[in-house]
Batch of 2 targets.
Target 1
Amino acid sequence: MNLNNIRIVLVNTSHPGNIGSAARAMKTMGLTRLYLVGPHEFPSHKADEMASGAVDILKNAVVTETLDEAIADCGLVIGTSARSRTIPWPMLTPRECGEKSAQESNVHQVAVIFGREQSGLTNEELHRCHFHIQIPSNPEYSSLNLAAAVQVIAYELRVASEMPSAFEWDYRFANEKEMEGFYLHLEKVLVALDFLKPEAPRQLMTRLRRLFNRARLDEMEMNILRGILGAVEKKMK
Ligand code: SAH
């Protein structure tokens, strides 16, 4: 396991204190890489205060405007959510998240994404993920404080980092940027084929995203699929 290949991504955090507490939660477990997507207030004294001895994590935090920029180079993307969503997605327990990240952090970048204090992650953001995690909690009061949720996941990553792990594959996995390029291409071809009707898209692209995210395409498989799409386009002309 390489904890340096694992990043914690906080999306549109409102309270800078939560950013500081998340940094502290990370550092206690040996995680160092914090990404902040459009934080409301950062840098901030409140964040520094709550980070205590973990201000170095805040100093080195990467601030981005979009989630895309924060996860483009990642081969494994995991989203956290207190609620289950309309279209079920492959789920991991926090423990399984630790194990999977432990294995895959040896071969590519891993991101675990956390949502807004008020509204969590949007469906579009969650559809970018290979897996979702719901931290087991009281069904009548299931939403943990953001930094507390980071602590639970960071702890599981720590536990897993102390176990031996092996993961081998012949080709590197496609990263998020390549997956997004593939989905755009696929959508374009499906529209050209009149299979996908832009005026009535239903959940087609969401279901296809779930299918291909579940398959975890590697670089070679991605090239084959892009090649097939290209051949379809050529024939249509
Ligand atoms: N009201 C929001 C909850 C936001 S809590 C909602 O209904 O989605 C802020 C963030 O903490 C969430 O976006 C998620 O990243 C994390 N979180 C809180 N409780 C969680 C739980 N039980 N399981 C997984 N993530 C959780």
Note: The pocket of S-adenosyl-L-homocysteine is lined by residues 80-83, 114-115, 117, 119-121, 133-135, 137, 142-144, 146, 149 (CB under 6 Å).
Target 2
Amino acid sequence: MVKPPPLTSRRDLLLWTKRTLFSLGIKPKKKLSQSFVVEPQLIIEIMRYIQHYKPLTILEIGAGLGTLTYHIASLCKKVIAIEIDGRLAFFVKKLTRDLGNVEVITADILEIDDVFFNNVIVGNIPYHITSDIILRISKSKCPLAIITLQREFAERLVAKASEHRYGKITIITDYLFEKKICSVYPPIAFYPTPSVYSALITMKRIRDYDDIAKSLEKLLLCTFTERNKLAYKVVNKCTNIDISGELPWLREKRVDQLTLNEFLEILHIMLKIRK
Ligand code: SAH
């Protein structure tokens, strides 16, 4: 019988985590971002969001020791838990076997089929591939993501125009999602303790990744290579058309001062001119 992860206190969960790792003979691998949640409040907060949105199926990214997996399983019909490390996946299977609604898949989250991403996504995700995961979620049909990532990255997602963390990923996700930083957790919320703070965020889809999103992404890729330059010059260079006549305000702004709506206006004019 495997003892379930306790939510009684941080101390209890830390002890459970250390004992489980010891009994499995597993030394966490830094290169796989293996830092396991030991703060029950973080799990309880995620559970609250799940209870609010009531998803049928959840895709969990990076199950680790199954701490989150175990507790969210009671809140939905099915959890599909993806874990790249076979030793951990094997343990999570044992831990959740009796629950009857958890499917554990040993795989790289970036390699799995698109259909899995149609579900609500939950997870304390592996930090070294945060960008790739956010982009994959963006391009999928995932209606809602409730995920923990490093605080700096979360701040990039919600940054406002002109702020130094504002960039391509901010704008493309502004187009696709309503985003919110729910809470920030200190390094000791995880074991082994990482060097960074973490943030729990929610991303609720407001648009599909459509043709406009594709064109927007292309335009952002080109223009943000010169984020501090005057926008009209950079846009001219990237699109080969002069649109500053139609959008006089473009002459006064740098690339990183443009909001999502301003980029959408640029795209709109570009399409009109090209027709
Ligand atoms: N969610 C767990 C584990 C967090 S650590 C918890 O909160 O305790 C991140 C987990 O992601 C680790 O278990 C790591 O092995 C796994 N992981 C790392 N890269 C991955 C990848 N490409 N695909 C799937 N899982 C991955």
Note: Residues 10-24 form the longest helix (15 residues).
